[in-house]
Design brief:
225 residues, globular
Length: 225
């Protein structure tokens, strides 16, 4: 039904054969098929990167695959987010971070800026890179505000909160009542449905997310398709 998704799904199947079914020969055959038949499929490269990262522990291979995946699907927020995290935390490769992501300050042609992609998790992770590596305070603020607006309750926002708020923890700076108001009145909490067996990268960015609030008076006009 969706031929374009086939390589990514086969890569996910290969990863499952390796990690859960322990059929490593089958997994190797499937990964070889993906590399031969779909060498320019960014989502397949992303699945292979995670496999090399988490299952094989081969960081050199994983890094090259994360970068290739991002270059092939530059507007996929999940792929971009994992590339940033890997380059920042694992390899500490500031030069490659600069090369890949500083140009994403603004949208150019088909490549959206990191803000225009509109993904809370990506904005949260990228806000730290913009602040600490790129030293672009305005960009960092744009990204952080997006993360707060669309992902206030996320673990990333909680973790990175002190970086943007004078080293104060979120619960200290905001307080329990403000958190309550943000969740139930201002509708700033977002819920995300995801697969239990994959990252959801294949579905992210295909359409605008639904905006369904918890506040009193929310109605059908609050749902954006």
């Amino acid at each position: 039904e969706d031929p374009e998704a086939c390589p990514g799904r086969v890569a996910e199947l290969a990863s499952m054969f390796h990690s859960k079914l322990k059929q490593r020969a089958v997994a190797s055959t499937l990964f070889k098929w993906v590399q031969k038949e779909a060498p320019k499929d960014g989502l397949a490269w992303y699945v292979m990167a995670r496999h090399q990262d988490y299952h094989l522990g081969n960081q050199d291979m994983a890094g090259a695959s994360y970068i290739k995946a991002h270059e092939l699907v530059p507007n996929n927020p999940v792929v971009a987010m994992e590339a940033i995290v890997w380059l920042d935390v694992v390899s500490k490769d500031n030069r490659t971070l600069e090369r890949l992501f500083r140009p994403r300050r603004f949208s150019r042609d088909s490549r959206l800026s990191l803000v225009d992609i509109g993904h809370a998790g990506l904005a949260c992770e990228a806000s730290v890179t913009a602040l600490q590596l790129f030293r672009d305070l305005n960009w960092a603020e744009e990204l952080w505000n997006l993360a707060l607006r669309e992902g206030l309750g996320s673990e990333c926002v909680k973790t990175n909160w002190p970086i943007h708020n004078e080293r104060k923890e979120m619960h200290v700076k905001v307080g329990p009542w403000e958190i309550f108001l943000n969740v139930f009145w201002r509708r700033r909490m977002r819920s995300h449905l995801n697969s239990a067996s994959s990252t959801g990268a294949r579905w992210t960015g295909r359409s605008r997310p639904w905006q369904i609030g918890l506040a009193v008076g929310s109605n059908a006009s609050n749902v954006a398709l």
